[in-house]
Write a structure and sequence with these properties.
The protein is built from 9 helices and 8 strands. By secondary structure, it is α/β, with parallel strands linked by helices.
C-alpha cells in the first residue's frame, strides 16, 4: 500500500508546465546560486521556475498556486528578483540564439518584422500605466515586438495603449540597438501604422537599413495574399493566446508585463528545443 501511495503523491505533483530535465539543463546556469553567507536557501529553484511557468500558462493568481509548489510569497519574490536582475531577459535571448543556430541561421538576423498588440488590463493596474487605443477601442497596455523570420522576439516593450506605433517602434529599436552592437539588420517589415519619415530615418541612421511597409491584398488568381514576412509577427502574437495570464494583463508594473511575455516565449522555445 505504501508504494502505491508514494506513486500517487509523485504523480499529483506533476503538471504539464513542469520542465523536463533537458529543459531545466538549458536554463539552470542563468538561475542565481544561493548566497554563501546568511541563511541557507531551502527553496528548490527548479520548483520555483515550474511554479512561474504554471502561473503564466494557466493564468492563476500568485496566491492561487497549488500547495505542492513552494509558498507563493517565495515564488513571487524569486520572480521579481529574476526580473530585476535581467535573468529572464538573458534566458530568452540565449534560447532565441539556440533556436536560430539549430535552424541553421545566424544569431543576429538581417530581416525583422515589427508590430504591436493592444490588450486589456485588470483593475489592479494603475491608471497612469493605462491608455486607450482608439483604433481598436482597447483600454490597457500595448505590446511592441521586434521579431525575426522564425517569429522569435529579439526585443519587447510594453507601454500604455495610447502610444503611437511609430513611437513604440523607436523605443523597441533603440533598446535593441543598445544591446546588439554589431547588428546585421538590413530590412524591417511593418504595416501601414508605421509609415512616416521619423521611423524611416531612425532605421536608416541607426541600422543603415530600410523599412518596407507591407500590405495584404487580394488577387483574382491567388485570392488573399499576405504581405511579405509581416505575417510572422502576427503569428507570434497568436502564440501568446495559449497563455491565459496574458489574455488580460494583470501586472501592476509594465516591466512585469514584459517579463510575462518573455516567459511565454521561453516556454515556447524550451518545448521546441527539448520536446517533452
Amino acid at each position: 500500500m505504501a508504494p502505491v501511495t508514494r506513486l500517487f503523491m509523485v504523480c499529483s505533483m506533476s503538471y504539464d508546465t513542469d520542465l523536463t530535465d533537458a529543459q531545466w539543463k538549458l536554463i539552470r546556469r542563468h538561475i542565481p546560486r544561493a548566497k554563501s553567507v546568511g541563511r541557507p536557501r531551502t527553496t528548490n529553484m527548479r520548483r520555483v521556475v515550474d511554479a512561474i511557468m504554471y502561473v503564466v500558462t494557466h493564468g492563476c493568481k500568485w496566491r492561487g498556486l497549488p500547495k505542492d509548489f513552494p509558498p507563493w510569497q517565495s515564488v513571487y519574490r524569486h520572480f521579481d528578483d529574476l526580473q530585476q536582475r535581467g535573468r529572464i531577459r538573458r534566458i530568452q535571448e540565449a534560447l532565441t540564439e539556440m533556436v536560430r543556430v539549430e535552424e541553421g541561421k545566424a544569431p543576429n538576423p538581417s530581416l525583422m518584422a515589427i508590430d504591436s498588440q493592444s490588450v486589456k488590463t485588470g483593475k489592479v493596474v494603475p491608471n497612469s500605466d493605462k491608455g486607450i487605443d482608439g483604433g481598436k477601442n482597447v483600454r490597457g497596455h500595448k505590446r511592441h515586438m521586434f521579431v525575426d523570420s522564425l517569429g522569435l522576439p529579439h526585443e519587447i516593450v510594453v507601454t500604455p495603449a495610447n502610444l503611437h506605433d511609430t513611437k513604440g517602434a523607436v523605443k523597441v529599436l533603440a533598446k535593441y540597438a543598445k544591446r546588439v552592437k554589431l547588428s546585421r539588420l538590413k530590412k524591417l517589415v511593418a504595416d501601414k501604422g508605421y509609415r512616416g519619415e521619423m521611423l524611416k530615418g531612425f532605421v536608416r541612421k541607426t541600422f543603415k537599413a530600410r523599412i518596407k511597409i507591407g500590405q495584404n491584398h487580394t488577387s483574382p488568381q491567388r485570392g488573399f495574399v499576405p504581405a511579405e514576412k509581416r505575417w510572422v509577427v502576427e503569428r507570434s502574437f497568436s502564440w501568446l493566446t495559449n497563455f491565459r495570464r496574458l489574455a488580460v494583463d494583470q501586472e501592476r508594473c509594465l516591466r512585469n508585463s514584459c517579463a510575462m511575455v518573455r516567459l511565454a516565449f521561453i516556454r515556447i522555445m524550451l518545448r521546441r528545443l527539448c520536446p517533452s
